[in-house]
Structure to design on (290 residues):
């Protein structure tokens, strides 16, 4: 395979990927609006029989250990919360992208889902701990989707990992993003951004996907959210859940303090919370990412 990707190649790849379902797309639009209400989420889920069935299956799974079965979709959504509903909707539509073996990053199938889920949990917790004026559930969704572009360019990166790591080692200013661009022409951030636009995702999510390694370049209205995902991404990698050869091969932007007022030693408590929440969510969402 020719390792270089043109924008035309990328659009062909994107066209081969199923669109998000109408209900999943609308769900992402609604939950990105800070003034939305849970009733809107419930109404949306009710319009999709498959999503309704999946939500009821998840809420009654062993992961939650409920004494009494929940048969009402209203109760199920209220119990699970928006972040899990969004995870189910995304997983049902795009599960294959998350499950894919990332051979170009030397990562096994399911590694992307685990990394993204941990990033999502961390980003949400960082927003909560900082008291930032950002929806915690939007931070979760952004974390879940931030690396989706890796699935699109991974095959083109096959056998390039040693070159990429070698280039980074020899140049201080270099990181894996620059290596991707040099080796295949398009980094995973741009690939993910183009997919996000094709899926008609809300602007804030598109900004996070494009700028999560360089959050200072995000649009002002999405910058705090992008910093939360940037930091959450690094926390996931520090916890041993990266996506293979690129793990911890990016620069940390310390400017997050301007946007997230985090108390001292918060990263330790966030990492602990990520471990606890990950165990619960991974079990409840089993089958969507590995």
């Amino acid at each position: 395979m020719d390792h270089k990707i043109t924008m035309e190649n990328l659009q062909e790849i994107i066209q081969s990927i199923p669109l998000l379902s109408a209900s999943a797309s609308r769900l992402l639009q609604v939950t990105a609006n800070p003034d939305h209400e849970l009733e809107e989420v419930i109404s949306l889920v009710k319009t999709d029989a498959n999503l309704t069935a999946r939500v009821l299956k998840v809420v009654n799974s062993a992961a939650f250990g409920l004494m009494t079965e929940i048969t009402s979709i209203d109760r199920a959504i209220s119990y699970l919360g928006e972040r899990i509903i969004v995870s189910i909707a995304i997983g049902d539509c795009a599960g294959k992208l998350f499950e894919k073996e990332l051979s170009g990053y030397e990562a096994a199938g399911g590694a992307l889902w685990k990394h993204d889920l941990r990033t999502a949990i961390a980003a949400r917790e960082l927003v909560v701990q900082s008291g930032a004026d950002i929806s915690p559930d939007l931070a979760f969704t952004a974390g879940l989707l931030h690396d989706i572009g890796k699935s699109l360019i991974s095959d083109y990166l096959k056998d390039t990992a040693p070159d990429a790591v070698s280039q980074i080692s020899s140049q201080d200013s270099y990181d894996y993003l620059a290596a991707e661009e040099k080796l295949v022409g398009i980094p995973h951030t741009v690939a993910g951004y183009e997919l996000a636009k094709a899926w008609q995702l809300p602007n804030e999510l598109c900004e996070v996907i494009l700028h999560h390694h360089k959050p200072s370049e995000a649009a002002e209205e999405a910058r705090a959210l992008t910093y939360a995902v940037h930091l959450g991404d690094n926390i996931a990698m520090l916890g041993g859940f990266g996506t293979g050869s690129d793990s911890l091969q990016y620069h940390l932007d310390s400017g997050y303090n301007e946007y997230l007022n985090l108390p001292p030693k918060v990263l330790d408590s966030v990492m602990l919370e990520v471990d606890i929440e990950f165990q619960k969510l991974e079990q409840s969402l089993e089958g969507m990412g590995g």
Summary: Residues 7-17+101-284 form a domain with the Hypothetical protein af1432 fold (CATH 1.10.3210.10).
